[in-house]
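Field reference: sequence -> structure
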Amino acid sequence: MAALIRFLASGGYIGYIPVASGTFGSIEGVALGWALFNLIAQRSLLAAIILFVLIFAAGCWIADRAEHAFAEHDSSRIVIDEILGMAAAMFLIPMRWPWIAAAFGLFRLFDIFKPWPASLIDRRMLGGKGVMLDDLAAGIYANLTLQAVCRLL
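Structure field:
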């Protein structure tokens, strides 16, 4: 079971890349976001949202177990949070490469700098929920920024 947890938490071992593992995890998130919000949401937006919530809940459990497996809080090898955070950044944005690239850049920016309340979540919330929620916040910040730009254009 520990090997499966490590595999899932690290995004299929992407998290083991020694440099910028979060960035590589975010690239995986682009694929998930595209599948959820381009393929599935075209048929049923509700199904895409429910699937995202279920994957996020599973991610919280996986990240919690991975912290124990890696014996480290929010280990850089855990990238499931970046994968889901990036997917959240892509929610209901135009699925064209300039928008996806903007979502990626904004997500990475917000994930690195962690504006409030993501910084508070990162510092105070322990376990898998804390690992996942600060990246979800970064994804929401990126998404809201892009939604505003979308409406201005």
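Note: The chain has one domain: 20-152.
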